[in-house]
Amino acid sequence: xxxxxxxxxxxxxxxxxxxxxxxxxxxxxxxxxxxxxxxxxxxxxxxxxxxxxxxxxxxxxxxxxxxxxxxxxxxxxxxxxxxxxxxxxxxxxxxxxxxxxxxxxxxxxxxxxxxxxxxxxxxxxxxxxxxxxxxxxxxxxxxxxxxxxxxxxxxxxxxxxxxxxxxxxxxxxxxxxxxxxxxxxxxxxxxxxxxxxxxxxxxxxxxxxxxxxxxxxxxxxxxxxxxxxxxxxxxxxxxxxxxxxxxxxxxxxxxxxxxxxxxxxxxxxxxxxxxxxxxxxxxxxxxxxxxxxxxxxxxxxxxxxxxxxxxxxxxxxxxxxxxxxxxxxxxxxxxxxxxxxxxxxxxxx
Length: 349
Ligand SMILES: [Zn+2]
Fold this sequence. Notes:
By secondary structure, this protein is an alpha/beta fold. The chain is built from 15 helices and 15 strands.
């Protein structure tokens, strides 16, 4: 049944049983909604109608013009709602005729993650998993900068960052989590400030210590996923061994000059190969790092973003990860190679 805004206003104004249902988007609601209306985006109807609406009540469905409200009614019918009325003139006409409006108190979380909610194959379910996740980031340097920024933006509920270093001028060519004002500060303090400014809804725990065999077990045992953003093999092997022990997925990346290597060890799967299977430890061998051989500033940025992507995929179960595959990106010739590797029988993992 269709009706004009005037009838809708009169019907809903005096009755709690009759409810205006605004199916426009959150960005439109910010400018105003019909007074007392229930807000539910068209794209959320399948997921949220059952929890936000009651089949006992009558809904007067409104959008800007009348197209989305027509679609909303079709969807609600398939969900078993029957008491539906189409306000054909829409909110445009509601404003023109000067019926009362209000600025709703929109859930900011809802708006912040709107693009994830809309994303096919992702949606609220995946976003909820991110909110509940706790990630340990080892190192707030080049890799940690871009991974932390994207993980904070994505709404990972808790990020613990462990790093004992202070920001120096030569870091700023690639470590975009810090800035010129933070030179001399602890990297974890600078990181906490930046990430909290980006997303105040999440918790950042900064640990100003170097990861070592004493502090690492507790840190790793308490999180869901570990991201290795360290720059030395000793730490990498320590993290690898503890992640195996505590069955925590480990997202690995390393950079060298123009090249980035990324892989994931999913130790929730007991058949997963480990870092020692991929790079058997050679006593006393320490390859050159950024401080001696240089690195193009964007390389750790790209690798860190890839680590963030792997982490999001592991948490949500969306898509395929780089388990048992080493991705090698060479920015000199824009080449992407993926090398498969296997568990070594003699390895203790
Ligand atoms: Zn192994």
